[in-house]
Specification:
alpha/beta, Rossmann fold, eight-stranded mixed beta sheet, 16 helices, transmembrane helix, Histidine phosphatase superfamily, Histidine_acid_phosphatase, phosphatase activity, transmembrane
């Protein structure tokens, strides 16, 4: 029964009514913004390499323009005219000032590429950035050439943001990828979650549908049918969605592809929501521990957002005015649940009823106004925080305000002190993360410095970056000592294993999903031994520590070629994927 309530509410998404949220702007000025942005459209996570697609880059560019239209200045595009302005105070609108900005990203190529595209939209090339009316004119002049000429940066005044990529060795990385390398979370997803009775019931109810989808044209033979099940719900949806969008054979092969994608997305949404939130109605210590573990991604994000706003006030608004974090959607799903936004209504309809779209943004605004002087940063007593969600990167999409933490405020405002206190309660610092995740290889966790998690007193804690370095040094010393002992006492020597080249496959065997039948306009996605990238965890790669399944690249056969019939629910029935009905579970919250 542990997950039955959560599962029943998450597994069925039917029509409902979403309570409208206020979107008022008459609550003072915006002094700081922190946002988490989901990555844009990319190749499937089970591909050989995961890269940003051209459409994904355009999505992120559009989202960057939307942020520019709201927080900086008017954009020269009527498609953004409906975006409500909320100007971020004391910001340069044409030149990037990295001293007041904080941009971080996961290390994935698809994420960093999308982040750069977003920032191009936020601060587009500006050939006039160093004109005569700016204080930085001198850096654009060359007096050895006369001094009258002004030189722009390349690409017609391209802007150069300071984007930091956070690897798994950086304690700050937990803020944007809290699930990654979290040993207890990975174990919970691969062992305990899959053995839960209600989850097994959900698995059995959806199993035949997955078998039909991947056992018939145009996906037959693409993956092993043993992997076509609920445990891989997101990876399978991600794969089919990409192929239906970018592969002609798959797109033309589905008579009702939109309906199939909708069903697969619902299952994927249910699984990702279950993985990132936990609620069984119990107040037991075990239940509380699981609640924290399941939502570790959202809790790590909460800590980061609160820390940035605190820093902004400590520096009198001169630092961390705009914080942008780029990554996959897990922190968004997790925080939505933590903040009380996942209700009986919102789980059925509206933007929170499904997976975040490519480029979706969760935004926190620090707002307020000094009654005596509206041009100065107010004291914390006059500040509030509000939450916005921009559900997609479409130009016409609006920034919609939602009330956090069951706030009764009509405009969604939460007093600053209340916001920080609540975020402290639910937040997980990099040190807390070590305790929550248990046996982990994160280098900063090897340093046994105790932290009380007090966001308001960072001086009480060792700086996370320093702790990461110390942890890495300690790990290096331990490895060196262990190697020395093996060499001296056991006569064991370590040597690099020679990497053998893979045999060259025959023509057509590794030509992607369509092999020799591939058209010039079709893009390939090849699943290799490299396995799944760290952006997605919790399915194939987490089962009992076993090696990842090795899928052979299989061509998607043209319709007119003979092929084996896929697995059917009834061997004597002509059941097809087009007529299959998805499982409908009982709905309850």
């Amino acid at each position: 029964m542990a997950l039955r309530k959560c599962l029943a509410a998450a597994s069925t998404l039917i029509a409902g009514v979403w309570a409208q949220s206020s979107n008022q702007s008459d609550v003072g000025k915006v002094w700081a913004v922190a946002a988490f942005i989901n990555n844009g459209d990319r190749t499937p996570v089970i591909g050989e390499t995961v890269v940003l697609t051209p459409e994904g880059a355009q999505q992120m560019l559009r989202q960057g323009r939307a942020f520019r239209a709201r927080y900086l200045t008017t954009v020269n595009d009527s498609a953004y005219d409906n975006i409500e302005e909320a100007r971020l105070q004391d910001m340069t609108i044409h030149q990037i000032d990295n001293s007041v900005l904080d941009f971080t990203s996961q290390t994935d190529e698809s994420v960093t590429g999308g982040a750069m595209a977003f920032l191009q939209g936020l601060y587009p090339p500006s050939p006039d950035a160093f004109g005569t009316d700016t204080e930085e004119t001198d850096i654009a002049r060359d007096y050895t050439e006369g001094g009258d000429n002004i030189t722009d940066y390349p690409l017609n005044g391209y802007q150069y943001p300071n984007l930091r990529t956070l690897s798994i060795l950086d304690p700050m990385s937990t803020a944007i990828q809290g699930n990654l390398r979290c040993s207890n979370w990975e174990s919970e997803m691969s062992v305990n979650l899959t053995s839960d009775a209600s989850m097994q019931e959900f698995y059995n109810a959806t199993h035949d549908y997955y078998q039909i989808i991947f056992g018939t044209y145009p996906l037959q033979g693409l993956i092993s049918l043993s992997d076509a099940n609920l445990w891989n719900a997101y990876e399978l949806y991600d794969l089919v969605n990409y192929l239906y969008t970018h592969n002609q054979t798959v797109h033309d092969g589905f008579a009702n592809g939109t309906e199939i994608l909708s069903i697969l997305r619902k299952y994927a949404t249910s699984m990702e929501r279950i993985k990132n939130s936990y609620a069984d109605g119990s107040d037991s210590a075990d239940s509380k521990a699981k609640e924290i573990l399941y939502s570790v991604a959202g809790r790590s994000l909460a800590n980061r957002v609160a820390r940035q706003f605190i820093n902004n006030l400590q520096w009198s608004g001169s630092h961390d005015k705009l914080t942008l974090m780029f990554g996959s959607f897990d922190p968004i799903i997790s925080f939505i649940s933590l903040s009380g936004l996942l209700t009986t209504d919102s789980i059925l309809n509206g933007p929170f009823s499904t997976l975040p779209n490519p480029g979706a943004a969760l935004v926190f605004e620090l707002v307020g106004e000094d009654s005596d002087n509206s041009d100065v940063l107010p004291s914390f007593n006059d500040l509030s925080v509000r939450l916005y969600y921009r559900a997609s990167a479409d130009p016409g999409e609006e920034f919609i305000s939602y009330p956090m933490f069951d706030s009764e405020s009509q405009n969604g405002l939460v007093p600053y002190s209340t916001f920080i206190e609540t975020m402290q309660e639910i937040g997980v610092t990099a040190y807390d993360w070590c305790e929550v995740c248990g046996d982990t290889t994160a280098p900063w966790c090897l340093y046994s410095y105790a932290s009380d998690g007090d966001l308001d007193n960072p001086s009480n804690n060792l700086d996370p970056v320093i702790a990461g370095v110390v942890g890495a040094v300690i790990m290096g010393v331990v490895v060196a000592l262990a190697s020395g002992c093996l060499y001296c006492f056991a006569g064991v020597r370590l040597r690099r294993k020679t990497v053998q080249e893979e045999p060259t496959p025959p023509v057509g065997a590794a030509g992607g999903f369509k092999g020799p039948e591939r058209m010039d306009g079709d893009k390939d996605v090849t699943v290799t031994k490299e396995g799944f990238h760290h952006e997605r965890v919790g399915s194939w790669e987490l089962k009992d520590g076993k090696p990842l399944p090795s899928f052979d690249a299989v061509a998607v056969p043209p319709r007119d070629l003979p092929r084996e019939s896929g697995r059917s629910l009834d061997e004597d029935d002509d059941i097809s994927v087009m007529g299959a009905t998805p499982v409908k579970a009982h709905e309850a919250v």
